[in-house]
Specification:
single chain; 377 residues; alpha/beta; Rossmann fold; formyl-coa transferase, domain 3; six-stranded parallel beta sheet; 38% helix
Length: 377
């Protein structure tokens, strides 16, 4: 058995944040009915990389039933109300107020169905002055300051995956699980609200505190850590980049003695602590680079391994696909073709791990769900 077997989730969802949240619920055994407009979730058209399906859509929509409804039409509106009446969880990420105006406001739904858990995912929340702003991942990265601390010293950089969408979806998933635990002891459903901006702002806490109370927000460092040194990418004689990380003074000593063969650096006042190393990063890097440029990446990594120093190769996506730690799972696209994708990050020992189901075609379950829930009225 899976943890959420027997639970019904109804989701009016689009893009990435809400679909990823409900995908995780489906993977835990919940039945997820995905409500789509007649034209479908626009994430279906982001690309065609997954053998004709969108890579985003394949990732975030496995194990679901797609039902096409136009809730502005009386019959479809009534069916959606019937679905929600039977549901344990209702999730939505349309623009704030959209479903409220259609009669599906979360507070009203919980008043009508006291055990219902509702989850509203928005860009900037529902009460701020920014409510009317369109909120997509890159925009929130920019508005929250994430972009300002990403990239190289002379160039801003978008974080390369949709981190605000992903973070909001996973935060919503965690909130729903907490709400289910609360309901198990209180028999009362609750509302869960998550915004992309709140998630990004939470992740910006360290730069925020440094800016408000310290010496200012960290400058962009490219492939170096802004507040730990050495922690970054170093080039060897074969032009390969290796990222190494020193987290404490024991590791610094081992790096100096076992990797660099420069034991005198251990007690050099410029490098005696992490604070000094950050302040004197250029001098420190000059010492490191003078040694590393005489080694191949293989030789450097062997020394780091022998010294028990954390390191990693700077891989590209093709390197990820060949990585010895990569686990894969397989799913079927909406047209029945098999694709491989990275395995789920959580594995269980005493619960059934998720089964693989296909990505739904638009409206695949519409007739079946109509028949099932009309019969239950």
């Amino acid at each position: 058995m899976q943890a959420l077997t027997g639970l019904l989730v109804v989701s009016v969802e689009q893009a990435v944040a809400a679909p990823l949240c409900t995908a995780r619920l489906a993977e835990a055994g919940a039945r997820v009915i995905k409500i789509e407009r007649p034209e479908g979730d626009f994430a279906r058209g982001y690309d065609t990389a997954a053998k004709g399906d969108s890579a985003y859509f394949v990732w975030a929509n496995q194990n679901k039933e797609s039902v096409v409804l136009d809730y502005k039409q009386p019959a479809d509106n009534a069916l959606l109300h019937t679905l929600i009446a039977k549901a344990d969880v209702f999730v939505q990420n349309l623009s704030p107020g959209t479903l409220q105006r259609a009669g599906f406001g979360s507070a009203d739904l919980r008043a009508r169905h006291p055990r219902l858990i509702t989850c509203d995912i928005s860009g900037y929340g529902e009460t701020s002055a920014a409510t009317d702003m369109k909120a997509y991942d890159f925009l929130v990265q920019a508005e929250s300051g994430l972009v300002s601390v990403s990239g190289g010293p002379t160039e801003l950089g978008r974080i390369g995956v949709s981190v605000c969408d992903i973070g909001a979806g996973l935060s919503a998933h965690a909130g729903i699980l907490e709400a289910l635990l609360y309901r198990s002891v209180s028999s009362v459903g609750t509302g869960v609200k998550v915004s992309l901006f709140d998630v990004a702002a939470d992740w910006m806490t360290v730069p925020f505190l440094q800016s408000e109370y310290g010496q200012g927000a960290p400058a962009r460092q490219g492939l170096q850590h802004c507040s730990i040194a050495p922690y970054g990418a170093y080039q060897t004689a074969d032009k390969a980049l290796t990222i190494l990380s020193i987290q404490n003074e024991r590791e610094w000593q081992r790096l100096c003695e076992t990797v660099l063969f420069l034991p005198e650096l251990v007690n050099d006042p410029r490098f005696y602590s992490n604070t000094q190393r950050v302040q004197n990063r250029a001098d420190m890097d000059q010492k490191l680079n003078a040694v590393f440029i005489t080694l191949t990446a293989s030789e450097l990594r062997m020394r780091l391994l022998d010294a028990s120093i954390a390191f990693g190769a700077l891989n590209d996506v093709a390197g990820l696909a060949r990585h010895k730690a990569l686990r894969l799972r397989h799913t079927m696209t909406s047209t029945g073709q098999q694709v491989a994708l990275p395995a789920l990050p959580v594995q269980f020992t005493h619960m059934t791990n998720p089964k693989v189901h296909a990505v739904p075609g638009l409206g695949d379950a519409t007739d079946r769900v109509w028949a099932e829930f009309e019969a239950q009225k």
